[in-house]
Structure formats: C-alpha cells, structure tokens
Design brief:
single chain, globular, 2 helices, Glutaredoxin, about 25% helix
Length: about 140
C-alpha cells in the first residue's frame, strides 16, 4: 500500500478525490484529484522555481468531507491537509506557491500575510512532524 519516494518538499494529492461536492468525476470519467495532480504537474514543469516541490499521488487521504484534497509536507516541518479545491490552474498555482513558502520556512509556518489568496479557507488540519509537537 505504501511505496518509497524521495524525501523533500511535496504536495501529495488524493488521486481519488471527488471533482466537487456534487460531482465525482468530469465528463470523461476523470476524478478531481487526478485532474488536480495533472494541473500541479503542468505548472511545476513550466516553472523552474517549483522544481524542488514534488507532486505525488496517493489514493484516498481520508478527508472525504472535502473534495480535491492535498497534503503538504516537508521534512522537519508542520504538514498541512487542505481541501475543497478545484483542479483549475489558479488554485493549483496557489498550492504550489504556498508549498514554496512552506519549504523555505524554518518550521512550516508561513505568516498569514504571505499566503496566496487561493489557499485561504482551504486548510483542514495541521500535522506536527515526527518527533515534535507544538509549544
């Protein structure tokens, strides 16, 4: 069920997520999560500043109350589960822009004033890194 991936900053996309609250897949049978992963990869491939952010997929992140869910992670940093996205270019770009800020931060905390508009309101949970808890 698990496979090893390279360590480093990553956006892990729930590949089986719904397209929206009301729709499971698009007219061609593609799930929202798979479409979001593709949008993230397309943007990543066209911008060298994003090359260090991996885009990975995992079937079902168990956040089914939201659609198009991602887990943002980087070693030694607080991780975040975010959802309720659409697989659109602007939202995928906001996720990647936030991932860059997250990876550059000391502990995974990005000041609110730096958040891209496209991620505001999408946070579901924050996950402490292994071996740490908040103070």
């Amino acid at each position: 069920m698990l496979r090893a991936v390279e360590s480093g900053p990553a956006v892990v996309v729930c590949s089986t997520c719904r397209l929206s609250a009301d729709q499971r897949e698009d007219g061609e049978g593609q799930r929202g999560g798979a479409l979001l992963a593709q949008a993230l990869r397309t943007i990543r491939e066209t911008d060298p500043a994003l090359a260090h952010i991996a885009v990975e997929e995992m079937p079902c992140l168990f956040a089914c109350q939201r659609h198009c869910v991602v887990h943002l992670r980087a070693q030694g940093r607080i991780g975040y589960v975010m959802g309720g996205f659409t697989p659109a270019h602007d939202e995928a770009r906001a996720i990647l822009d936030y991932a860059v800020l997250h990876a550059a931060s000391a502990e995974g905390v990005v000041p609110y004033g730096q958040w891209p508009e496209g991620v505001k309101g999408h946070f579901i949970a924050r996950i402490p890194p292994e071996g740490f808890v908040g103070t």
